[in-house]
Amino acid sequence: MAELIDGKAISQAIKDEIREETAKLSEKNIKPCLAVILCGNDPASTVYVANKKKACEYCGFDSVSLELPEETSEEELLNKISELNKDERVNGILVQLPLPSHINEDAVIAAIAPEKDVDGFHAVSVGNLLIGRPGFVSCTPAGVIQLLKRSNVEISGKECVVIGRSNIVGKPMSVLMLRENATVTICHSRTKDLKEVCKRADILIVAIGKPRMIDASYVKDGAVVIDVGIHRLEGKKLCGDVDFESVEKVASKITPVPGGVGPMTIAMLMKNCLEGCLRQNGLLNE
Hints:
This protein is α/β, with parallel strands linked by helices. The chain has 2 domains: 27-114, Leucine Dehydrogenase, chain A, domain 1 (Rossmann fold), CATH 3.40.50; 139-263, NAD(P)-binding Rossmann-like Domain (Rossmann fold). Helices cover 41% and strands 15% of the residues. It has 10 helices and 11 strands. It has helices spanning 7-26, 43-59, 74-86, 105-111, 123-131, 139-150, 170-179, 194-198, 244-247, 262-280; strands at 3-4, 33-39, 62-68, 92-95, 159-163, 183-187, 203-206, 224-227, 231-232, 238-239, 253-254. It has a 6-stranded parallel β-sheet. Strands 3-2-4 form a 3-stranded parallel β-sheet, sandwiched between helices. α1 runs parallel beside α10 (262-280), α6 packs across α7 (170-179) and α6 (139-150) crosses α10 (262-280). It is globular and about 50 Å long. The N and C termini lie far apart (41 Å). The mean pLDDT is 96.
């Protein structure tokens, strides 16, 4: 039976560390500040934004919240981002996705100043990650690395398979695992013999977007399985991309859904915002 990797406990430990560091900064009259823009009234986005505000409060950050109506034009949104780019008090800017269909997400991401891009989605942030320069890393993949390290999972020299090649999870995840000296295979919808490829993995990271698709037949005995997916089934029950009940019997460690990767995303957002504050105040040794 697999050992559970407790994302709630690990994310709480990270937020506690951030809170301590923020308290030390306040002695120098420095306080991290995160600006969050919500455009429209998507129910899931509203919940995410509320959780981010709560995390800011817990960590001792200031937060600026801009809640814009659905009909906000792209130009108006870009103007708001420009104002926040220039605001010296703001260390991090996050635009909650998805945006209303009339707004170009790529243009919005590109408008955020790279030094305030705490989501790690800007082309400059992605480029820095790829060539190993300091910069912001996309929060979910960064959270997965912390889950593995803080659960004493050896990454160096291990075979890692990442299922999914999105810009937000799959691609940055594979680069981060390479950075930790894993041997990485990326799988996707065109991968042949997916099951056989997955069964080679010492560490299997699943971000495929299909509920319970990966069952025990894809998993090598003793593998570590990280489930990035989250889906709401009938009756409001949540599940991931991994069929937890069958995989739990063969894996050595596994993340649950909920309570695995999910809580880590906000914890790493807080970490990025703190890092932005330190960097902008010349306090980060890199």
